Amino acid sequence: MKIFYGIQGTGNGHITRGRIMARELQAANLEVNYLFTGRPQDKFFAMEVFNGHQWREGLTFATNKGKINHLKTVLQSKPLNFLKDIRQLDLSAYDLVICDFEPITAWAARRQNKKTVGICHQYAFQHDIPRAGNDPVSEIVLKKFAPVDLSIGLHWHHFDQPILPPVIETPFIPERIQKNKIVVYLPFEDQQHIIQLFARFKNFEFFIYSPEASPSHHAHIHCKPLSLTGFQQDLSDCAGIICNAGFELASEALQLGKKILVKPVHAQMEQASNAAALSLLGYGQMMQTVDARRIEPWLYETKAIRVTYPNTAKHLVQWIKDGMPPVEQSWCNQIWSEVNITPVELS
């Protein structure tokens, strides 16, 4: 079987999931070619697992100070280039197209009548799951951005729906957690404002990651550029993470048993819904703005939840090899039965 796999690269979560799927697909001896869009080509990193890949500009969302800017999004989009890329992407040699919310792949496959399977968190919103911040624009984006023939939605809990657990790494749990170490990843916020805010909490060490690392003049604040290895090392032995409400990073934090404080990107329904789900499940806390009054009590919180998820990627690859039978609740329930939830003491 020859597979074409399109992955949205606007955030790192889709790429992280893609790396895990790529390893399982390779282990199953399936031939896969990849396409990435959503950010400049030179901003991708740690892409070796994809064994060479295509790149197109694609579509992305413009943000300003932690909020989606719809006008700027429209103005910076290049619809003629986007349509050209759809027309020129030749999928005739492939038996299956997989889409991780990547629009060029989805629309090219639809144009060429190629069977398309969507695997990502966004497709979970086709089911009855917690939602917040609904608006007509968000609904259109979810339905029309990357349409597929068959979708597999991913979430932290099943909510009695035919969805699956996150595609996530099996964690390495360090023997010792640094209880005052906090990882911060708020790339859509003003980084100087972030540094100034955390400067007041001198009893904690903050490791702030961003696409463009700002200099820090505070001994307890460490500003770092994006790095797969460095970020995973800091995440593994920290006590908690403060981040936007993206799906994949929160999944990693849950798997590692970290306390979580999320600040959803404004005017982004998916992130608002993720934050609501974390609160509903008791897996994390949320704040609507980056607010020191919300951050301070959370810093001194000594309890967290570890949710150990199964190897969902392996289940998915086997499902693909089995011919992609109809997604039945019994199959989903079997995979969810492998989830283990345990309390964690951080003191």
TrEMBL record:
Pfam families: Glyco_trans_1_3 (PF13528). It comes from the Bacteria. SUPFAM superfamilies: UDP-Glycosyltransferase/glycogen phosphorylase. This is Glycosyltransferase. It comes from Nitrosomonas oligotropha.
